[in-house]
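Regression test case RT-17, inverse folding.

Input:
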């Protein structure tokens, strides 16, 4: 199957945005696992004085986890889907949280950062060029800044692939078909099968120049299927080149490029 990418993926998330939170609420541990991963950033002093990036924030579930893990941090939350951002903005947020309608590929040239930490939940298997986005993350992170990637990445055993396929075919895709988002949830199924196994993504982080990259397990049915990858920025790389894709204006209805938190 051809995976959804770039504008097609943003449009699919735009459409799915109205039911996304209801579907993820049916996934046991979705929010507690996000909180566990956000806490694995180990931000000191509740994040006081720190600026944290939530890359691929969606409807704000990962942003909410960051806010709980680091209640005094300033958070910039970024997503390529205007529809997902509109759902996030329907909720009240403290002033220190703001949302930007930008793709991960556009961010390095948007004048944002530097950040003390970056959190990316369920983003990397969706991007066209994970290595390029990791390079961008390094240019946005301060030296020594922390990265936590929360991602479906199978442990590599046939049993884990079979469990993932059973969950998708038995529940995720039928539920997504009912909401009119079959293509997106088939993309979810295949994007996980195609993505790095946990040791491979750890290696990818190391090759990108991150230090101390490790994959940490999560509890429940997602053990061996979802991991938190933690690492810190190594020596600063050269500045990123110009953004390769523009997603501005792809939302079904306009969303402000920059929206202050409420
Ligand atoms: C599965 S959702 C996860 C949202 C949120 N992080 C969470 O944990 O609930 C993935 C999000 O990544 C966004 N996304 C995918 N590719 C992106 C890209 N290249 N740049 C920015 N956001 C992207 C999608 O629009 C979507 O909102």
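Golden output:
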């Amino acid at each position: 199957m051809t995976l959804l990418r770039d504008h097609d993926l943003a449009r699919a998330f735009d459409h799915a945005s109205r039911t996304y939170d209801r579907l993820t609420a049916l996934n046991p541990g979705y929010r507690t696992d996000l909180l566990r991963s956000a806490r694995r950033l180990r931000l000191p002093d509740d994040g006081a004085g720190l600026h944290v990036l939530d890359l691929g924030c969606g409807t704000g579930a990962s942003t909410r986890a960051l806010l709980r893990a680091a209640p005094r941090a300033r958070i910039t939350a970024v997503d390529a889907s205007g529809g997902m951002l509109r759902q996030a903005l329907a909720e009240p947020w403290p002033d220190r949280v703001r949302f930007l309608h930008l793709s991960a590929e556009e961010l390095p040239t948007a004048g944002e950062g530097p950040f003390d930490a970056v959190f990316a939940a369920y983003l990397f298997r969706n991007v066209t060029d994970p290595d390029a986005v990791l390079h961008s993350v390094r240019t946005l992170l301060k030296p020594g800044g922390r990265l936590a990637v929360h991602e479906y990445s199978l442990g590599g055993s046939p049993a884990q692939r079979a469990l993932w396929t059973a969950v998708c075919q038995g529940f995720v895709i039928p539920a997504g078909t009912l909401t009119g988002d079959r293509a997106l949830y088939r993309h979810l199924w295949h994007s996980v099968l195609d993505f790095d196994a946990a040791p491979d993504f750890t290696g990818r982080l190391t090759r990108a120049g991150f230090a101390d990259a490790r994959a940490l397990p999560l509890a429940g049915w997602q053990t061996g299927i979802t991991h938190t990858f933690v690492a810190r920025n190594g020596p600063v790389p050269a500045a990123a080149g110009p953004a390769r894709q523009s997603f501005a204006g792809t939302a079904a209805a306009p969303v402000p490029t920059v929206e202050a938190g409420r």
